[in-house]
């Protein structure tokens, strides 16, 4: 590929961007050996703290560290304010969309989205029809994945409205940077993010009509890849971390088993997918959920955050319509851009995609975590042919996008400091108001040239700074 | 607090305490196995004793058939396939801690996680490199550190109570087993071995040192250790932290302080046992036969553990 990448730190002419100058000065005065030593220190600290994630399908060493890079990703505050407004606008529209499709379905009647796209979607939950949720909120916690193209424009790559993860790394990365390089934080104004757990708890409480509801975090258990994060957030918020077996239903209410007897639960921050929540309503083989939970939910006696059935709105086949949603519900123009998307279910788009596979990124509409996707320019001929066959067999299950020139950020790798591709996931909280902490999680593809930043595919993370200019 | 959380906290500290006591057991057996053995061919019996006391001798024989010192040490300390090895106890403690890392402090978690990481290093390098005594010291030290991190950082709430319940139940049981094993080593002849014989002296003082009760013994009795004062010290003295009475007294107080009505049976049993120890004299115990008395009491500790389990920890 010959197109230039947008470098977060340096202008095309090689000069340092203003919001990175303080850091560049520091970097120039810091010997590589010291950086190496600090990185080693960071590894030890992360390992000792057990800040790990679990890799599926890996029997050898199931607990791994997510590689942490000591060079931060920095965003100018003025630029951040635009991204922030864009994320808020987007999540508000998505919540209105969810409220709508489970009630009047105005957007379908107006002909803006083909009804079968929504109603026949795997993520659409009939059980949610007509159910009124407090404040009409569905996605209380959302992650918006952003990338920057070669000219620095921000694009939304996807929305995560089910159980977005990674916020614990955002918080731990900041803690680590402040510990390793306090001088950097003294030298400039970097917006704080440590209050995220406070905002999250506030969001969870405001999702319930009760005055002082009891909230818990529901985890699939310690073998889940994000278990560290579940435990981390429960601890930071000072609420119980429960598994399905700790909860039971009695008289249309939900209780947890405690050493002092049953205690009522009002809000569940669930980190469990819809299909595992209740064996009576969804997957009957699931041991992870709580029998009867959905009937309590439908009776309005417990709040689930996020709500059941949000998956329909972050489905990749619905993604192309988000711009229209923003216009339809908010009467505003989208602040953040969508990546142009070909929907393989449309015959015209399909033939274009099949003709240009080596240039495109192909994704499964229901996939997540970087599993089941094709990056055309990086794929072998055999992989491309394999995908061609899969797309032909189930065209409706795939979308394709141009290969974006993800921006790069200097990263400390084996060979020294070199540019690597990054993305950004801000976390948007919706409660009595819609808000986010400055920045988010920056993921970095550590392999040279790689565009896949997912931790399950060998990606790392960076601290993300919003710097006052 | 969640019953499952309470259960994980309780087992976390039980396994850690068990690892510590296994190390103490290993220390006394190992040091005695190095002694010239009067009337015995070698120190194998001593090492086998620690397997017997921890209830794993049969498993060992099934696996290795003969009593080989090196294999016994490995089996007892590092064998990942022996669920009662020190290795497996530390692993279990860490697994329980992992499950409740949201409920313990960062200091506690990092401590127990670091212990486990180091344990894996030691296991992959082998005990020979490390040295038996040094390994025992290391296990004890890690246990001390964790207890220190716990008492220094955790809030005084139910979590703290369940952690301590686990510690003292396990310790009570282990002290009884260690004393029983030592007493057993005298075999049928225990009455004949005069307490001031060299062997008796080394036996009892090794036990006292392993339980870090040697200083206390000297201060209280100012005499060479023998069956009667050692038993009295380890069973009835409430001011010696690893004694049975001290453990039961702690358990009694912790249980009495737990909120709710679910624990009546456990509270009553602990109070009964505490009262019994307070008003028992060592001569009564020796008259009944030390081994019989110890066996009976191990059963009662087990029963207390069951009652605690039913009242607080069970996920029905």
UniProtKB/TrEMBL annotation, chain B:
Recorded hits in InterPro entries, A to Z, give: ATP-dep_Glu-Cys_Ligase-2, DUF403
Q: Which domain of life is it from?
A: Bacteria
A Pfam family this chain is assigned to: Alpha-E
Which residues does the UniProt record annotate as the domain DUF403?
1-313
What name does the UniProt record give this protein?
Answer: Alpha-E domain-containing protein
Taxonomic placement: Bacteria, Pseudomonadati, Pseudomonadota, Gammaproteobacteria, Pseudomonadales
């Amino acid at each position: 590929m010959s197109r230039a990448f947008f470098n977060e730190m340096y202008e095309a002419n090689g000069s340092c961007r203003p919001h990175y100058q303080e850091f560049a000065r520091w970097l120039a005065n810091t010997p590589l050996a010291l950086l190496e030593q600090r990185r080693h220190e960071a590894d030890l600290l992360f390992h000792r703290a057990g800040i790990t994630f679990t890799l599926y399908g890996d029997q050898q060493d199931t607990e791994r560290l997510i590689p942490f890079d000591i060079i931060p990703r920095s965003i100018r505050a003025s630029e951040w304010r635009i991204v922030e407004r864009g994320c808020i606008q987007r999540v508000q529209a998505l919540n209105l969309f969810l409220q709508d499709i489970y009630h009047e379905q105005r957007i379908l009647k107006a002909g803006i989205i083909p009804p079968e796209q929504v109603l026949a979607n795997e993520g659409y939950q009939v059980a949610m029809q007509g159910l009124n949720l407090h404040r009409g909120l569905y996605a209380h916690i959302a992650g918006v994945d952003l990338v920057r193209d070669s000219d620095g424009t921000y694009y939304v790559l996807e929305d995560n409205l089910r159980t977005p993860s990674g916020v614990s790394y955002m918080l731990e990365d900041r803690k680590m940077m402040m510990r390793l390089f306090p001088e950097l934080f003294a030298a400039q104004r970097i917006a704080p993010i440590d209050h995220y757990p406070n905002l999250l708890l506030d969001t969870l409480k405001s999702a319930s009509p009760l005055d002082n509801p009891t909230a818990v975090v529901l985890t699939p258990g310690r073998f889940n890849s994000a278990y560290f994060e579940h435990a981390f957030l429960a601890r930071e918020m000072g609420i119980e971390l429960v598994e399905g077996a700790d909860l039971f239903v009695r008289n249309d209410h939900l209780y947890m088993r405690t050493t002092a007897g049953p205690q009522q639960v009002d809000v569940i921050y669930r980190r469990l997918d819809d299909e595992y929540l209740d064996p009576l309503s969804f997957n009957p083989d699931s041991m992870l959920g709580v029998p009867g939970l959905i009937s309590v939910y439908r009776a309005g006696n417990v709040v689930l955050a996020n709500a059941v059935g949000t998956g329909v709105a972050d489905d990749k086949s619905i993604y192309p319509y988000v711009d229209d949603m923003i216009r339809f519900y908010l009467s505003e123009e989208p602040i953040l851009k969508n990546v142009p998307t070909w929907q393989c279910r449309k015959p015209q788009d399909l033939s274009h995609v099949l003709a240009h596979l080596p240039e495109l990124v192909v994704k499964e509409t229901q996939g997540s975590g970087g599993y089941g996707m094709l990056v055309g320019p990086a794929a072998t001929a055999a992989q491309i042919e394999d995908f061609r066959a899969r797309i032909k067999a189930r065209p409706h299950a795939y979308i394709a996008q141009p290969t974006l020139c993800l921006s790069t950020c200097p990263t400390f790798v084996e060979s020294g400091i070199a540019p690597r591709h990054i993305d950004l996931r801000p976390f948007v909280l919706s409660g009595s108001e819609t808000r986010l902490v400055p920045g988010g999680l920056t993921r970095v593809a550590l392999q040279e040239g790689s565009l896949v930043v997912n931790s399950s595919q060998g990606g790392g993370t960076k601290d993300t700074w919003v710097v006052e200019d | 607090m969640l019953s499952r959380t309470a259960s994980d906290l309780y087992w976390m500290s039980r396994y850690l305490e068990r690892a510590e006591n296994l190390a103490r057991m290993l220390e006394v057996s190992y040091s005695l196995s190095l002694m010239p053995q009067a009337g015995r061919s070698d120190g194998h019996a001593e090492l086998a004793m620690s397997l017997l006391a921890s209830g794993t001798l049969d498993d060992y024989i099934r696996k290795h058939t003969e009593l080989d010192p090196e294999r016994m040490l490995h089996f007892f300390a590092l064998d990942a396939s022996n669920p009662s090895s020190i290795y497996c106890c530390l692993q279990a403690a860490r697994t329980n801690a992992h499950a409740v890392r949201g409920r313990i402090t960062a200091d506690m978690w990092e401590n127990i996680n670091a212990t486990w990481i180091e344990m894996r290093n030691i296991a992959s390098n082998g005990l020979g490199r490390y040295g038996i005594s040094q390994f025992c010291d290391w296990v004890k030290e890690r246990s001390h550190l964790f207890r220190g991190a716990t008492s220094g950082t955790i809030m005084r709430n139910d979590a703290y109570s369940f952690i301590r319940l686990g510690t003292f139940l396990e310790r009570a049981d282990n002290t009884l087993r260690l004393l029983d094993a030592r007493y057993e080593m005298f075999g049928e002849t225990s009455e004949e071995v005069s307490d001031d014989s060299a062997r008796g002296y080394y036996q009892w003082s090794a036990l006292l040192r392993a339980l870090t009760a040697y200083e206390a013994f000297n201060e209280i009795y100012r005499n060479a250790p023998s069956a009667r004062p050692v038993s009295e010290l380890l069973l009835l003295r409430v001011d010696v932290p690893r004694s049975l009475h001290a453990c039961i007294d702690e358990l009694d107080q912790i249980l009495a302080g737990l909120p709710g009505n679910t624990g009546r049976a456990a509270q009553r049993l602990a109070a009964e046992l505490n009262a019994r120890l307070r008003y028992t004299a060592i001569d009564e115990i020796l008259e009944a036969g030390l081994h019989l008395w110890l066996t009976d009491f191990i059963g009662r500790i087990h029963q207390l553990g069951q009652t605690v389990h039913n009242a607080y920890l069970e996920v029905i």
